[in-house]
Amino acid sequence: MVHVLERLGQTVDFSRAQTCCGQMHYNSGYQSEALPLMRKFIETFRNAEAVCIPSGSCVAMIREQYPRIAAETGDRKLAAEVNALLPRVYEFTELLVNKLGIEDVGAFYPHRVTYHASCHSLRGLHIGDIPLRLLRNVRGLELVELPEWDQCCGFGGTFAIKNAQTSAAMLADKMKNIISTGAQVCTAGDNSCLMHIFGGLHREQANVKTIHIAEILASTENASIENASTEETSAQKVSTRKGSRA
């Protein structure tokens, strides 16, 4: 993600003060424990021109739940700070297309690729075909449609643990559809989905890689699929700035 943004002339800053957005806590019922994490997020990124996050799941948490958490505290100042920051928080592909107005980032990735739309990006953020528009402009890339592309992979955070059998059945359907495309690579905008899908494909010894879309968009003619893995893409939130320092 950083490679792509810097190639496009953006100034990228990783704040060492950043921590979890609090989604795991909030979704598991530990709402009071999520509050200090939300306060920390606001404090860390208060002055950023834009906050770019390579995870639709995290962005959905911030947009959907932060206003509710702030409202429940009765702290008007906190609620105002949340409302002021939210318009500057973007999912990675959303930032490229909607904020920067760029659909061709100059990438080259000569592989057959299929795209999985994560639930949070599709239903929570409503980013639609933004990732597909970016992928269609990658040179050398053959994009193949994933059957039932809008269906959940079965991960859902703690859902995969609390409802393991249902999760495994959903994953089996997703893997069958991915394999049917003949794609070398399955990409998405959430590492959580990719981790879940990769685990299933690996156990089935399927010859399909899972790669975050940021890695594809960062790829150049010298990139190698053998060197790509879901672990290489940072899940940290970054503040992006063009021009003056935040």
Overview of the molecule:
The protein folds into two domains: 2-99 and 236-241, no CATH class; 112-232, Rossmann fold (3-Layer(aba) Sandwich), CATH 3.40.50. The protein is 47% helix and 12% strand. It is built from twelve helices and eight strands. Helix 3 (31-45) packs across helix 4 (56-73), helix 4 (56-73) packs antiparallel against helix 5 (76-85) and helix 10 crosses helix 11. 41% of the residues are buried. The chain has 246 residues and is of the alpha/beta class.
**Mean pLDDT score:** 89
Overall helicity:
40-55%
Run of helices and strands: HEHHEHHEHEHHEHHEHEHE
Fraction of residues in β-strands: 5-15%
Specify the CATH class of the largest domain: Alpha Beta
Tally of alpha and pi helices: 12
